[in-house]
Records
---
Amino acid sequence: MHNLIDFIQRYNHWFVFVLLEVISVVLMVQYNSYQGSVWFSSANAVSAKMLSWNAEVESFFSMSKANQELTQRNLYLEQQVRMLSDQLTDKTHDSTWINRDELALLKGFKLIPAKVVSNSLSRHDNLITIDKGEAEGVRKDMGVVCGSGVVGIVYLTSAHYAVVIPLLNDKSNVSCRIRGRGYFGYLHWNGGDTRLAYVEDVPRHARFRLYDDVETSGFSSVFPPGVLVGKILHVYNSVDGVSYRLQVRLSTDFGRLRDVCVIDNAPVMEQLNVLRAAQDSLRPKESH
């Protein structure tokens, strides 16, 4: 306290000077219209600039949440488009569209937003790691999607992380169909271009066009029906000549993948577990 008093006594003339300067500036601005207008204009400009910087900083830190919300919104809109298309087809009695009972499965789905923390593209067994795990409700065999389409299937989980087998993995095998046509096949990636994959085993009697959309069939108990996979770019014959092999440009750009959603549907997972139990019970028992 003694030091503070000594400091004030030593520099009291400077405090008086500053105080008088402040009073003179206030009087000048208050009683002179020109100086007042200049002062307020400058003060408003500085204030506006500070507010602009503050808004930019807040926008930057809120961008992550906005991306997650956009990812979920895109997925919901995609499904709503499919449902509206189905209703329109119902009115026009076009039987080539999918059954509405399949779309009813969407009502039980919940989306768990997550971020990609690691992602490989140059291998045949590419894997993706996301920042959500068992603590957030993520479990093995759940489907993973993004705003533009299918990403892959959860393979391993820990408390707060999960490993996903993406479409860009030679072990990936997703049931797909041609949108609006009803023909089914299985999507495989054979390495090479990360934007191209192939739908195998499409029947020879199938009728479709180039650039038709390919979507999930809903038969895998992992993905709901109607999630976009890609577009048909080219048609080949299978090796045995019995079916078609479709080259598909994937809708998901794995090189820019950041925000994803894990599809959580307890009834579908229960169905998958029952199926596994049934398969196990049908296997021949070893003789002892």
---
Amino acid sequence: MSRILLLHGPNLSQLGARDASVYGTATLDDVVDLATRAAEPAGHEVEGVVSEYEGDLVTRLHEARTDGTDAVIVNAGALTHTSHALADALAILDLPKVEVHLSNIHGREQFRRTSVISPVVDGTIAGFGVNGYALAVGAVIGLLGARAARA
């Protein structure tokens, strides 16, 4: 069984209470449940982690190097656009990594259109609402399979 870390940054704990026209009505628990249900049939386990604090997210990514984590899905929230520390922590990981966003960040305000973490992940899924999480799970499962085939 592979372990997938599902990492959420600031304000994502408020899903369901935030602007529904942008973020939908699903709660963070709904999102983690959806990702878990997408991963389980293929024998994968999802660990949902959320923090409002950049340092907590960086620390959790450092732990992922040695704790048996096999892949990372990250929605860094507003840190997507500003956190070089988070990007550096992701870059250290030699694991499949997928960035996911509920909204299409490329069609939003100018400051949201740049992701400093996109260059250090395998791919980005944006604009599909909560369904993007199922797509991200599928993507990391595919990446894990490709690694296993090469090994």
